[in-house]
Amino acid sequence: MSRTVFCAYLKKEAEGLSFQFYPGELGKKVFNEISVEAWNLWLKKQTMLINENRLIMTNPEHRKLIETAMIDFLFNGKEIEIEGYKPES
Questions:
Q1: At what angle do helices 60-75 and 24-33 cross, to 10 degrees?
Q2: I need a surface site. Which of 11, 27, 35, 53 has the fewest CB within 10 A?
Q3: Which SUPFAM superfamilies does the record cross-reference, listed alphabetically (predicted)?
Q4: Inter-residue contact 31 to 8 (CB < 8 Å)
């Protein structure tokens, strides 16, 4: 059975994540306030950010950059600009 959350990103009730994908307090917040749909949108953005900026996830500064972008995207309504990426029109 799936759970429902009021998604902070979509601003509506939606299917919640099946488990906590991210550690710590931020992970709990994501689990409780972010839907499967919003998380999947974030994962696409995250992959593009990592690839376009050649981020290395073992680098603490790079991880912090990704975490900040995740908070901005999921909770603060900010669009993530990816240098060098041009969306298909």
A1: 30
A2: 11
A3: YggX-like (SSF111148)
A4: no
Does residue 82 lie in a domain region?
no
Q: What is the pLDDT of residue 86?
A: 60
CB 74 within 8 A of CB 9: yes
**Of 54, 78, 22, which is closest to residue 30 (Cα–Cα)?**
22
Supply the DSSP symbol for 89: -
What CATH code is carried by the domain that includes residue 9? 1.10.3880.10
Using one digit for the tens of pLDDT, what is the confidence trace for 33-82?
999 999 999 999 999 999 999 999 999 999 999 999 999 999 999 988 77
User: Which domain, by its residues, includes 26?
Assistant: 4-75
